[in-house]
Amino acid sequence: MTNPPAELVWTDEQGLYLTEHDYTVWALAAHSVHRGKSGWSGTDEWHLHRAYPDPDHVGWTAGTIPLDHGRWIAHPGRRNLARAKRIAAWVIANPDAAARMMHHEIVRAAGEEA
User: Would you say 32 and 41 are in contact if contact means Cβ atoms under 8 Å apart?
Assistant: First the structure.
């Protein structure tokens, strides 16, 4: 059994969308990623990160905000921002369940089309 999506208020700060839930700050960021042998993604895709993680979990820094490595949430572009926020709301409410799931399972659990 999972929790319903968290009700979140997002603020735009340093190019990130930040929110807080259960004493954890989360960041929604659009950036390209390295895809192994195929190289870098050609577009900035939406990723969800924990902001201000323990120092040994910092994957990169956006401006002055340290972030963990995060996970891919949605396809690129502002037109997908609302979808990224809906998927992120489910992941934030269910971080342990999401950690064990593939992306398509998270999308389905969040009530979105894959």
Answer: yes
Spatial separation of the C-alpha atoms in residues 57 and 97, rounded to whole Å: 19
Q: How far is it, in rounded angstroms, from Cα 83 to Cα 105? A: 15
Residue at token pair 């990160």:
49
Q: How confident is the model at residue 21 (pLDDT cuts 50, 70, 90)?
A: very high
Per DSSP, the three-state class of 38 is helix
pLDDT one-digit tens code per residue, 54-75: 999 999 888 899 999 999 898 8
Q: Is 51 exposed, middle or buried (0-12, 13-18, 19+ CB in 10 A)?
A: buried
